[in-house]
Structure formats: C-alpha cells, structure tokens
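Running low. Invent one:
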Amino acid sequence: MTFKAPDSLAEQIAQHLAKRIIRRELKEGERIQEIKVTQALNVSRGSVREALLILERRHLIVILPRRGAQVSELTAQHVSNLYELVIYLYIMLAHAVARNWRRESELQGFIDIQQQMLACMQREDIDGFVESSFDVMRAAFPFANNLYLQETLENLLPAISRTYHLALERRKGEMNQFVSTFANLLQAIIARDEAAASAVLNAYGEHNRALVLAALAER
C-alpha cells in the first residue's frame, strides 16, 4: 500500500488503522505492533508511532507502559459518556446554524447531503451513510466559526463512527430513523427554533445511545 499527500503520512496511517478498528477488523484489546504495521504498509517506524498517538487522541487505542498500543475497549460507560458530550456539542452547532443563516441558499448544502444519505440508505451502504452524516456536521462548522468546537468534534468522530457502525451493522433499518431525524432538525433550523432543534437532538442522542448499548449487549 502506498500513501501520498495531501494528508501527512502519519495521518494516512492513522486513518487506515482507524477504518480497521471501526469495522472491527482489529478487535478490542488487540495489540497493534509498530513493526508489523511498518512492514505491512512499507512506512517508517517513526510515522507509525506518530499515527498511534493520533489514534490515542481520537480514543480508538490506548498506549500502555511496557505493553504498547492496543485497541481501546468499548463499554457501556464509554458509550454513555461519549453521547452525553457529543449531543451537547451537536446542539451548540445546530443553534449556531439556526442563528446565523441568512439566505435559504446557504442551507442547500444540507439538502444535498440529505439526498446523499437517502441514496446510501437505499444501497445499504453503511460506510457512505456514516460519512454523509458527518458531512452534515462539517457543513455546519462555518456557521459556528468556532475552531475549538470544530477540533473537538473532529477528534471525536472516529469514536462516534465506531458506535454507529456497531449499531447499523445489526439494524440497517435505523438509517431511516436517522434520515427522519435530520429532516426534523433541518425544519427546526429553517424556523430558527433552537428549542425544537435541542429536542430533536436530545431524542436522537438518547435513541442512538440505547441502540448502541443494545448492540453491545448482543455481542
């Protein structure tokens, strides 16, 4: 495998390993050995070390003294803590969009993403659907103009993606629920109804949390 710009080499390695963790090709507790990754990807050991630090920051691995890197555990407590924070941040972002859009044409990007999600749902394309759901968040960033909020959410995305995949692999029909939620959220934003946007996102967060916890219990 050959990695090229624009992303740094370490970032590309991190993304490659993240996909394997999210898809559960690398299991919880499984060791990630630097030398094996170096040989498999034909990259430097320094780049692999940097990639592992990125993954640790994104909560996909832990690096333990004398034991090295291993895939982090996904527990009920981790899921609950993650959703408590993420929904709070999503609400901040939704409120920013509701307050700051000026012309309906500025919301066209959200409508385009909505169509992408529908297409992915029809194909039962979980990877594409999850990525499109995150495109919604990224389309909202300019309305907030808050680099700290953006950086925090970007670093949490792999952990969120991991939970989405776990749930959707067992219940693909839940994609329809997400599409309906986004439609309701968009209506609230167009109406500049921040209370309604908060209610939609809180209900979504509670539903998704319960879905992921049920998937964890079924493993």
